[in-house]
Amino acid sequence: MKKQITKFEDLKIWQGSHKLAMEIYTITKKFPKEELFGLISQIRRSALSIPTNILEGFYRHTTKELVQFLYTSRGSSGEVIYHLLVSKDLGYISNEKYLMLRQKYEYLSMSINALINILSKK
Questions:
Q1: pLDDT tens profile 78-111
Q2: Helices marked H in the chain
Q3: Which fold would CATH assign to domain 10-120?
Q4: pTM of this prediction?
C-alpha cells in the first residue's frame, strides 16, 4: 500500500531539490565576493526556485497547477546546470564537483519529468 502524501516534505523530489539547494549554498560561500550580486545570486535563485515551485504547486491543490509548477522547476534545474558550467569554466569549482552536481541535477530533472508524466496521465 502506498503512503499518502499529506505534506510537501513527503515528496521525494522536494527532498532532493532542497538538499541540492543547500549544497549550492555551501559551495557558493567559497566563490569570490565580487560574484555576490552576479553568479552567486543567480545560481542560488535558480537552485531555490526548484523546491519553491514544487511547494507552490503542491499547495495549489490541483493536478493541473502542480504540473505547471513542476515544468517551472524542471526549467530552473536547467538553469542551475548552466550556472554550474559557468562556475567550472571560471575556476570556482573543480571539474569533478561540476560533474557530480550536474549528474545530481540531471537526475532531479528526470525525476521531475517522470512525475509530470505520471500526473499528466491522470
A1: 999 999 999 999 999 999 999 999 999 999 999 9
A2: 12-28, 39-59, 63-89, 95-120
A3: de novo design (two linked rop proteins) (1.20.1440)
A4: 0.92
